[in-house]
């Protein structure tokens, strides 16, 4: 594909997304921006959440990781399913009962203002870093395919990407996001299915041949039970998936803004259960695609692996141009949608949790959130540029590693609040929330020396949350104490 054809493809998709966004934003107020007025059908949200949970990182990085870890990522998928059940039947009833704009308002009601601000700041840091990593990947791909060949700098690439994300979320917020997520989910699934078909056809495979080829490839291994020290060990991956999805979805303003658009708790629960089943099916398709991508690359002398594999194969001259078009549509659909979703949740949390809306009229809140929205877009752009200088790993691996450190204190705070009804000394909570991740860094660096070769994987999130929980236990008030 030429840079011009890629640009035209992106513009066509963006035009469709902007139309959907504007239609959904009509008559929107602050309530529509923050939680979509709670009028959306559960099945619409369920389909939309497939796309909102699968960013450009999933689209590019999951197929690429097959070469190193096979289909072991499905072990995390099992954990994802269990985590969604926890969210649906423990957290959702709580959120609807509180009737809040931001889920972190629960922390104020349960513990106090300092804990509330601590949770909000940790979400802000977590989401800013995680969303920037995801958008970095699409910017990197566009730099390879478009901006680089045209001699344009990476900084311009990032600026244009952030303007695109800003344009379709500025007015409608979450109300627009649900419907643009429906569009991007449809585009993403269509892209991966048709790409599977075209590559299998080029390799001379019918459906049964494709199934046999994937099964016999040596990259189809799912379960790893043999070595507890291996990062792919089943219980590490499953527990990591469970607690990651509870933290990154159930305790994440971004994801919860979507599901709290449903009309009532039961609809929200149906949305989550159906959504996680569909998400695991789509993840399996991505992994199957990864196997075929590696086989095609080996047969055609393509040296790229990991995050660069899918872009290299999709734009290879030996494949029909439609494969490249499908890749670009799937990539921009997943990446820009995830960026818009993150930008909206960051705006909501910063406006409601950190700046505060109490006592402000509708017009004042609107002006405040619009300024914050612009500031968040600028902040994400800066973080993407910084990450481009530092990244040396798989993007999806980077996302989960960051989550282990930044979402751990949030998971610990909510778990303590739900399971322990005792009051704590609120003003000391920030120290606990900072010390727990620092202790995890120490464990990560020294684990092999201290624990007989054991290496932490994504289960470090659970350790982080447990340390936070233990620290909060030390802050429990005696009956006669006051904060």
Structure overview:
The chain is mainly alpha-helical and 483 residues long. Helices cover 76% and strands 0% of the residues. It has 20 helices and no strands. It is globular, with a radius of gyration of 22 Å.
Radius of gyration: 22 Å
Mean pLDDT: 82
Q: Tell me the number of strands.
A: 0
Count of runs of 4 or more consecutive helical residues = 20
| Uncertain regions spanning at least 5 consecutive residues | 32-36
Quick structural gist:
By secondary structure, the protein is mainly α.
Jot down its keywords.
20 helices, mainly alpha, globular, 483 residues
What's the layout of helices and strands?
Elements lengths: L2 H23 L4 H6 L6 H12 L2 H14 L3 H26 L6 H6 L2 H35 L6 H16 L4 H29 L4 H9 L18 H17 L2 H7 L5 H35 L9 H6 L6 H35 L6 H29 L4 H12 L1 H12 L9 H22 L9 H15 L9
